[in-house]
Design a protein that fits this description.
homodimer, alpha+beta, Glutaredoxin, Glutathione S-transferase Yfyf (Class Pi), Chain A, domain 2, 2 domains, four-stranded mixed sheet, 7 helices
């Protein structure tokens, strides 16, 4: 299988992390969305929504959306809970990640790391920090009482939330305020097969 | 089971629609997020992220995030594909809906329908229309070749995308440009157990 992705993207790192945990062979095709590589006619023919990561199976079928890729690859492994309620909770946290977390925590990092200091989008940062802080507060509240997000075992929900949270400082978030989150970082990093982000 | 929701919200309508298709009894607790009802201490104790819809089981367990609720309720029914690849495609479209569609198509409708005409957020509308149009274009391209979103059968992915797309005109989107989407509306409306949005 082939994975189109940009190594410095948290959404793409999620796929690297689940593949490493599962020990699955794959070809990585570095695809720099900041340089327009996801907007070429060839890439848009694969994913009309023009985003990475994108999974391409050996039979040519393609799957987009990082969290859908996580669920597909982890299906049948302990990383996707077999219990219906635990699986529902994993999905709850993955939709939380894409709707209430990534658009603030990841976008603040993108602006600070990739855009020039005089770019107009720096004006968005106060609102992004406010909303991202709300998401981190929700995570902290959960992790103060639970070891992981879906029940008490490491799952795709942890992978989805770890990806951008562990680099949130690059977006201007102060993680010292979040002892339960930083303790959870350590639990994630000691999972068998863990690989760090290449960014 | 109890569902906390606001009838005029597309995210909440998704849950009404899947419950109607499945013929599941439930109590609906109207919860007006535009009047602060999702930010009370009592509601935040149920869902610290302060959003509806929220599912509360008879045993008191709660589940947030509309698309996670859809998957949980539809699990074991034809609305959630049993085939792993079809299920992955359903999830792909549901994450697309929450990340690339709802923040534009639903938010444009919210601004035009609920905020006063002189509210500062009306300035966001051109960008929301541009991004929402990109999402509708992706949907149109898919529906020009497929009857439904995950394979060839009606599923939770169609429910998730129908909710805000069928009222996109309220946000200022011109649906006449999308013949494949409007033909799909008709296929959705003729599914057994379909109920219209109460808004």
């Amino acid at each position: 299988m082939r994975v189109y992705g940009m190594a410095a993207s948290g959404n793409c790192y999620k796929v690297q992390l689940v593949l490493a945990h599962l020990g699955r062979e794959h070809a990585w095709i570095e695809t720099d969305s900041t340089a327009g590589a996801t907007r070429t006619p060839a890439f848009l023919a694969l994913n009309p929504n023009g985003k990475v990561p994108l999974l391409e199976r050996d039979d040519g079928r393609v799957l987009a959306e990082s969290n859908a890729i996580l669920c597909y690859l982890a299906d049948g492994s302990p990383l996707l809970p077999a219990d219906a309620w635990q699986r529902a909770l994993a999905l709850q946290w993955m939709f939380f990640e894409q709707y209430s977390h990534e658009p603030y925590v990841a976008v603040a990092r993108f602006i600070r790391r990739w855009l020039p200091a005089d770019h107009a989008r720096h004006a968005d940062l106060p609102r992004l920090i406010e909303r991202g802080t709300q998401a981190l507060d929700v995570m902290e509240g959960h992790l103060a009482q639970h070891a992981f997000f879906a029940g008490e075992a490491y799952s795709v929900a942890d992978i989805a939330l770890f990806a951008y949270t562990h680099v949130a400082a690059e977006g201007g978030f102060d993680l010292v305020r979040y002892p339960a989150i930083t303790a959870w970082f350590d639990r994630v990093r000691t999972q068998p097969g863990f690989v760090p982000m290449q960014a």
